[in-house]
Specification:
With 219 residues, the chain is mainly beta. Helices cover 5% and strands 53% of the residues. It has two domains: 79 residues, Lipocalin, CATH 2.40.128; 81 residues, Lipocalin, CATH 2.40.128. InterPro entries: FAIM1, FAIM1_dom_sf.
């Protein structure tokens, strides 16, 4: 696909925010994709934001529908580059984040020269993966000493992550449940787990920092 050019004096313009289906010479609407400047846009066809325990990762994909070129970027860094591909459809598999989570971009032909791009995480569609993840993790965001922190609890393993780093923790039993202790800078933190008494709700996890409860981010 040839780069899109601006007419003299046209200035900087942006493409629509829904660009996932691509055909030579144009884009079709399919899913939310952040806008790009026409001066820089060439073969970008899809962008996804993937929330993992170590942070939110941006995955960008370029697909040249004339050369078959495929380029994958993770958080702005090039992960895969294939300049010439005889087959325009197929898939690209790579790994994201500190836990090396498996990700696959599927390239499927829709009709003629139009293509659809879908992202799978650990073998599931991105939507299903995030729905399942919302049931198995808790996330809190807080500001300490002028710095933002994102704390994630993986409920199946009780691993705690803070700003992309897996924390050292110490667990202890208390009268009404358990506490998982860790430190963020000079601040004492712990996640308290108590039974809700209701089968559907199960265990309730609460983050306490310096004896103050931090509200959980609702998914």
């Amino acid at each position: 696909m040839a780069p899109l050019a601006l007419a003299p004096g046209a200035g900087s313009r942006t493409l629509p925010t829904s660009l996932v289906l691509c055909a030579p010479g144009g884009f079709s609407e399919a899913a939310e994709v952040p806008p790009y400047s026409l001066e820089k846009m060439t073969d970008f066809v899809a962008v996804w934001d993937v929330a993992l325990s170590d942070g939110v990762h941006k995955i960008e994909f370029e697909h040249g529908t004339t050369t078959g070129k495929r380029v994958v970027y993770i958080d702005g860094k090039e992960e895969i580059r294939k300049e010439w591909m005889f087959k325009l459809v197929g898939k690209e598999t790579f790994y994201v984040g500190a836990s090396k989570t498996k990700a696959t971009i599927n390239i499927d032909a829709i009709s003629g020269f139009a293509y659809e791009y879908t992202l799978e995480i650990n073998g599931k569609s991105l939507k299903k993966y995030m729905e399942n993840r919302s049931k198995t993790t808790n996330t809190w965001v807080m500001n300490l000493d002028g710095e933002d922190f994102r704390v994630v609890l993986e409920k199946d393993t009780m691993d705690v992550w803070c700003n992309g780093k897996k924390m050292e923790t110490a667990g202890e039993f208390v009268d009404d449940g358990t506490e998982t202790h860790f430190s963020v800078g000079n601040h004492d933190c712990y996640i308290k787990a108590v039974s809700s008494g209701k089968r559907k709700e199960g265990i309730i996890h609460t983050l306490i920092v310096d004896n103050r409860e931090i509200p959980e981010i609702l998914k």
